[in-house]
């Protein structure tokens, strides 16, 4: 099946992969073609395995509600909170979603006593909110409707709702002098109720304090809620006090998100393999270019010593290491085998230049091929010129890489300078202040 799919790939995709493989693969044309389709096969296998895993996740996400069978296990909240468990009821004629109110685990008598004691301490300690103390109340009080980590509910009452309401909001904008009033917290658990009375002293609000935009929006929302206290339902405008207000309980399905993430992952996997092939090609090109000055130097040395072109090619081909093959030496190795089998040296040298696909190697192959036809009188001289130019280019490349490295180090050096200056200047400024 995979073979059928990869054979249907667009010709442009196959051609680009063939170019990439040709630039780093060491072997004959038949072996190279096998490597091209092998790389496609491996790439498709990775994508298919990822697709199967993704589909398995989707199936598990879709049928996770069916795996529990007929029995439904409901866990009570460990922190004493009520939870709503959504259940689907199908009577045969009607089908409805029902939310079952699940109460927390009941207290023993000892646990109940301890919970009320902890609740009383919590109320007295936390009800001041952002105020300095209950003797100087300017901001809203903290009136929790439940004691955290317990099942104790709290209902609040105040002597004067115009100053402090049951939510703890303080209305002291028009207050002229401090007022002392009582607040009562009714702690309840099932049928047991305890009252905690705490006096507070409300003082006028500071005229210089400015209310934040968010706090103003919250107060306006609370005012709208109080005005509609007798209504079963009421509406809130989308913009209140210049702030946008939206429903915070929007339930969205996770399935579309999973689908989008899966598609992106599969695309990324395919793209990663394409980038890997390009990196292998770039690495092979760099290695081949770096070896050129060494190869041309060896040719000058061997031909200057009186060796024939066939002997020089054979000597360079002997540098081929099958354990750590380099593309350029494999091409010389293949050329040497063809010459040994009786192929035309001129034709083999031309094929050598075309197989490496770099201008410098094509030029070298043409020079050696021409020397076989026209004679080798000026071959050594031209190779020496080529050697000088190759080493000059290699020197320029090394200088350019050095400049690029120093440029990359410039930003870290600037950051280090900023850190050092900060470490020196901050203590100095602190000592002055």
Descriptive overview:
Keywords: Cell membrane, Membrane, Transmembrane, Transmembrane helix. Its main location: membrane. This protein has 433 residues and is mainly α. Among the domains are: 1-66, no CATH class; 109-202, Sandwich (Immunoglobulin-like); 281-420. It contains eleven helices and seven strands. The chain has helices spanning 2-6, 11-24, 29-63, 109-126, 213-227, 255-304, 309-317, 327-340, 345-356, 359-374, 379-432; strands spanning 83-90, 95-102, 153-158, 179-189, 192-202, 239-240, 243-244. The strands form three sheets. A three-stranded antiparallel sheet has the order 3-4-5, with helices on one face. A hairpin with a 2-residue loop joins strand 6 and strand 7. Helix 2 (11-24) packs across helix 3 (29-63), helix 6 packs across helix 7 (309-317) and helix 10 (359-374) runs antiparallel to helix 11. It starts with a helix and ends with a helix. The relative contact order is 0.06.
Order of helices and strands: HHHEEHEEEHEEHHHHHH
> Ends: how far apart?
77 Å
The count of β-strands is: 7
Number of contiguous helices = 11
| Mean pLDDT over the residues | 80
Helix content: 55-70%
Spatial order of strands in the largest sheet: 3-4-5
Shape: elongated
- Report the sheet with the most strands, covering strand number, pairing sense and barrel closure: 3 strands, antiparallel
**Strand percentage, roughly?**
5-15%
Low-confidence stretches: none
Determine the structural class based on helices, strands and strand pairing: mainly alpha
- Calculate Rg over CA atoms: 41 Å
Membrane topology: Multi-pass membrane protein
Pfam families: T2SSF
Protein name: Type II secretion system protein GspF domain-containing protein
Transmembrane segments: 47-67, 253-271, 409-430
């Amino acid at each position: 099946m995979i073979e059928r799919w990869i054979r249907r790939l667009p010709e442009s995709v196959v051609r680009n992969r063939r170019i990439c493989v040709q630039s780093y693969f060491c072997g004959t044309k038949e072996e190279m073609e096998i490597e091209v389709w092998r790389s496609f096969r491996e790439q498709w296998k990775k994508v298919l395995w990822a697709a199967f895993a993704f589909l398995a996740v989707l199936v598990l996400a879709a049928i996770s509600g069916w795996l529990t069978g007929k029995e439904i296990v409901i866990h009570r909240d460990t922190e004493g909170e009520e939870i709503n468990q959504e259940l689907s009821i199908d009577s045969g004629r009607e089908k409805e979603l029902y939310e079952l109110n699940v109460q927390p685990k009941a207290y023993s008598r000892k646990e109940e006593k301890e919970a009320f004691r902890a609740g009383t301490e919590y109320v007295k300690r936390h009800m001041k909110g952002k105020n300095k103390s209950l003797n100087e109340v300017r901001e809203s009080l903290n009136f929790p409707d439940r004691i955290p980590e317990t099942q104790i509910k709290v209902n609040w009452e105040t002597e004067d709702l115009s100053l402090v309401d049951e939510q703890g909001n303080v209305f002291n904008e028009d207050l002229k002098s401090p007022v002392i009033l009582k607040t009562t917290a009714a702690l309840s658990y099932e049928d047991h109720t305890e009252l905690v009375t705490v006096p507070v002293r409300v003082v006028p609000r500071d005229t210089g304090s400015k209310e934040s935009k968010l706090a103003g929006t919250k107060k306006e929302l609370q005012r709208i809620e109080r005005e509609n206290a007798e209504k079963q339902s009421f509406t809130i405008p989308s913009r209140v006090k210049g702030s946008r207000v939206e429903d915070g309980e929007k339930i969205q399905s996770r399935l579309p998100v999973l689908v989008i993430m899966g598609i992106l992952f599969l695309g990324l996997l395919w793209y990663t393999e394409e980038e890997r092939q390009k990196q292998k090609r770039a690495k092979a090109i760099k290695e081949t270019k770096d070896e050129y000055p060494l190869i041309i130097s060896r040719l000058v040395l061997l031909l200057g010593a009186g060796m024939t072109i066939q002997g020089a090619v054979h000597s360079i081909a002997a540098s081929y290491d099958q354990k750590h093959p380099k593309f350029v030496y494999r091409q010389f190795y293949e050329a040497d085998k063809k010459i040994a089998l009786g192929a035309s040296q001129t034709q083999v040298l031309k094929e050598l230049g075309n197989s490496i696909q770099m201008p410098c190697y094509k030029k070298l192959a043409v020079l050696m091929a021409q020397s076989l036809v026209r004679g080798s009188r000026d071959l050594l001289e031209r190779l020496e010129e080529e050697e000088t130019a190759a080493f000059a280019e290699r020197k320029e490349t090394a200088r350019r890489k050095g400049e690029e490295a120093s440029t990359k180090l410039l930003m870290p050096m600037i950051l280090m300078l900023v850190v050092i200056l900060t470490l020196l200047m901050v203590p100095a400024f602190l000592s002055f202040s």
